[in-house]
Each structure stands twice: as C-alpha cells, then as structure tokens.
Design goal:
alpha+beta; 17 helices; elongated; five-stranded antiparallel beta sheet
C-alpha cells in the first residue's frame, strides 16, 4: 500500500501494524471526534509538546459539524491553529514524519493526512564547547539537535541567500543531514557533487554520525592521516566559513559542524586569530605553526643527534644524555608515545572525583620514579613532555594525530637508517601533505601550491578585516 485511503479504519489498521501500536509504549494513538467525524492522531511520546497538543485537542473537540470542510486541504487552512502544517498521502512520508516526532492526524473521509509539526527534541543547554574554547568572543556552541544548530547560524547570518538544505541518509536510521551554504557564493558544481554523494549513499545507518558520513564522502587515500574535513563546535566559526563560500554539513545528533572543502591552512586556523587585533592574531597563528613544526621535528632530531654526537653545535653539548642509558632511546621514545595516549584515554574515562589523585599518581610514577628506576632518561622525559603539551595547541585532533603518526615513522626510520632514515621520514611527511587532496579535488596546500601570493599572506598573517579597511 503506497497511498492512504479515505477510510479511517483501513488507515488505522495499516499504521497500527507498521508502528507497533500496543508493543511500543512511546507510540501514541489518540482517537477523537472532530466536527462529527472520527479522527485519530499518531505521535511519539517525548517528541510532542504537551501544552500545544492539549490546546489543539481542545480546539478540535470544540469544532461543530457545520464548520467541517470537505477535504483535508480545507481543514488544514481553516481549522488547524498552528504554524507548521503540511499534507501527505504517501505512507513512506507519513511513517517517516511520525517517527521524526511530527503529529499525524487522520480524519474519516479525508484522503490526505494532516501533519502538524509540533515536535520538540530533548537537548542540553547551549553553552561554550569544551573543545573549541576561546579567550574572547561568543560562548555558545552547537548541540545535538540540528534545528537548534541551524538557528544558531541563522542568528549570525540574516541574509535571504542563506540556504539550509535538508537531506537524509541511512535506510534504517533516516538521519537528517543539512547542507548550509550561501546561494550566491557557493561553488555550484561542488555543491551538486556533495548533494549527489549524500543522496546516493547505500548505508543502513550513520552509526558514527559525522565520521560515518565523512568516510562515505571521501573514499580516496584513506591511509593518508591528514584531515580532509574541519570540525567545529562553534557557530561563529561555521558562519564565517559559510560567508567565505564553503559548505557546512550538519548531522542530527552531532554537536559539531563539518566544514568543506578544507585545506591544510584552513585546519590550523582558529577563532582566537580573529577575536584579537591583527598583530596579536598574527602572533598566535605563527606561534601555533611554529609549535606544530617543533612537535614533529623535536624528538627525531634529538634521536639523530644522539646517534651522531659530533653534529651537536658548539654550546649545545648539554642536550646530550648525561646518565647511563639502560633502554635504547628509540624504545624510550616509542613507549612514551604510547604512554601519553594511555594517559589521555585514562583521563577521559576517569570519574571527576578521582581525577586529581590519579593525576598526581601518574605524574609521580611517570615522572620522578620512572627516571630514578632507570626506565627513562630525564632528557627523553623532558622532550616528550613538551610534545605532549604542545599537541594541545592545535584545535584539530586529527591534525595532532597525523603529526604524531609522521613523527613515529621518522623515529623508526632514524633509528634504523640514521641520517638517511631521518631525511626519508621528512620526505614522507612532505609527500603526505603535498599529495593529499581536498573533498573538492583541489590542492591541499592551496594557496602555496598552486601559488597565490596574496592569499598565502592572508593565510599566514592576520590582516585587517575587509569591513575595517573601508
């Protein structure tokens, strides 16, 4: 049965079986009499607004037979006192609407169903994201409800050119996906490409939300760890990217936005760069770039100099390991790389009441005791501590782990082949970045390659905003 009939009994029999009325406690079926006609309302408990439904039921019960229109179109226009009302006669759309929280109203003799969008979703309050904190600027962040997230962007962009295009993916989950873009600024070919890819997804469910969607949208070079998307939980960052002509992808149940296309220079940008004056924003950006470079080169270069101590510059002899080395330096560095990730995972899963004592214990065990016992040398602990802390200067976890993987590869190659292994590790890093492509199949290093001097200066140095130059 593709379309509903005009008989209420047939419609109720079909829908009661499809929705599991009597089995699922949260699927409600309310039979009422409206203007002398039998009617039935289907809704999901927890998705509908109780106050709105109470007023609607009082209104429907008070309708007299002489006021009843002859069809659903007339009733939706004249006798449904609510803003978001629609009609449907196909069962696939009716079932999807009910399971999404929309109230479906069937009236005996009407060949169309009246859909009343009086739904509400449980959501946490809008607050500053734990991950994307800034020193200055707005303190609101995305939540798990896609309608709230679109409203946060529209609050910042009040242009009629702003589009919020709704799509769906997943044969079972029917996950809502919103493409947010500016009609007059977006790349039309790239927009069509993204839309077609989402519409053609053959998946049962987006179990991992945005990560599942990202892996479906970008299937080339999965082994390249450098991020192809930028994720942000800040509405101001998402709004700024939309105004630059990019596409923002919002997935229901996910409190962050996917920004595409994304280049290497886009990933290292942060909101703090623009919430401070140009000279301060430039300093923050350059500091972040320099620290990112150091996190990659510090430990491989230290290992190389320990293998070739004659290359240590005069005046820097103090960097050499002074104590006895019981465990080879390469194994110390690799063990600490793994131990740092172990501490991160432990911190995530540690209850708040135990976080302080466990942090003190971990600092003592991995700090003083591990050096005194001979497992690690103090110089190795110092450099790995810097790397661990410096990784948090990058807002993108994906970029931080990409540099980590490249650093581990360089450490292993340096330990095996010396200076040639070190150079090979650097070459692998350069090739991984240079050969990477954005989702729009453009260069990952634009505007460095292909070269665009003006745009490159804008990416490296925080210049004055266009509005301020007028």
């Amino acid at each position: 049965m593709e379309k509903m009939s005009g008989r209420l009994a047939d419609n109720m029999q079909y829908l009661n079986k499809q929705l599991g009325i009597g089995t699922s406690f949260d699927v409600l079926c309310r039979v009422v009499e409206v203007g002398g006609k039998s009617a039935c309302l289907y809704m999901i408990d927890g998705f509908c607004k109780d106050e709105v439904m109470q007023k609607l039921l009082q209104h429907f019960i008070g309708i007299t037979p002489d006021k009843m229109p002859s069809d659903a179109h007339g009733m939706s226009r004249q006798l449904v006192p609510y803003g978001e009302v629609d009609l449907a006669d196909r069962w696939d759309r009716i079932e999807y609407s009910v399971m999404s929280g929309v109230v479906a109203m069937f009236v005996d003799g009407y060949e169309q169903c009246i859909l009343i969008d009086a739904r509400t979703y449980p959501a946490r309050g809008v607050s500053e994201p734990e991950k994307d904190k800034v020193l200055r600027g707005s303190k609101d962040g995305f939540v798990e409800t896609v309608v709230f997230n679109t409203a946060l962007i529209r609050r910042r962009i009040r242009s009629p050119q702003l589009r919020m295009e709704m799509l769906r993916a997943g044969s079972s989950s029917q996950t809502d996906i919103v493409l947010c873009y500016m009609e007059d600024r977006v790349d039309r070919d790239f927009l069509k490409k993204i839309r077609d890819r989402i519409n053609s997804l053959q998946v049962d469910a987006l179990t991992l939300n945005q990560e599942s969607l990202a892996e479906c949208l970008y299937q080339r070079r999965w082994y390249n760890p450098f991020p192809k998307f930028k994720f942000s939980e800040r509405p101001d960052t998402a709004a700024a990217q939309v105004l630059e002509g990019n596409i923002i992808i919002l997935v229901d149940n996910s409190p962050s936005a996917m920004i595409t296309p994304t280049s290497f220079f886009d990933v290292i940008e942060e909101a703090d760069d623009y919430y401070f004056p140009p000279i301060t924003g430039t300093y923050l950006r350059l500091s972040r770039m320099l620290i990112a470079i150091l996190t990659y080169f510090l430990t491989p270069t230290f290992l190389l100099l320990m293998e070739y101590p004659q290359w240590i510059p005069r005046g820097f002899s103090f960097i050499a390991v002074q104590d006895t080395v019981h465990i080879p330096l390469i194994w110390q560095l690799l063990i600490l790389e793994l131990a740092i990730d172990g501490l991160k995972l432990a911190a995530v899963n540690t209850p708040n009441m135990l976080s302080t004592p466990l942090s003190v214990m971990a600092a003592l065990v991995l700090g003083e005791f591990s050096v005194k016992s001979g497992w690690f040398n103090s110089e190795v602990m110092l450099y790995m501590a810097f790397v661990a802390v410096a990784n948090y200067t990058q807002n993108s976890y994906e970029l931080g782990y990409a540099l980590k993987f490249m650093r581990i590869i360089n450490l292993i190659l340096t330990a095996l082949f010396g200076v040639w292994g070190y150079l090979a590790g650097v070459a692998i890093l350069v090739l991984s970045i240079a050969c990477n492509r954005t989702v729009s199949n453009q260069s990952y290093l634009y505007p460095l390659f292909p070269f665009n001097g003006k745009q490159l200066l804008h990416q490296i140095f925080r210049t004055r905003l266009p509005e301020a130059r007028r």
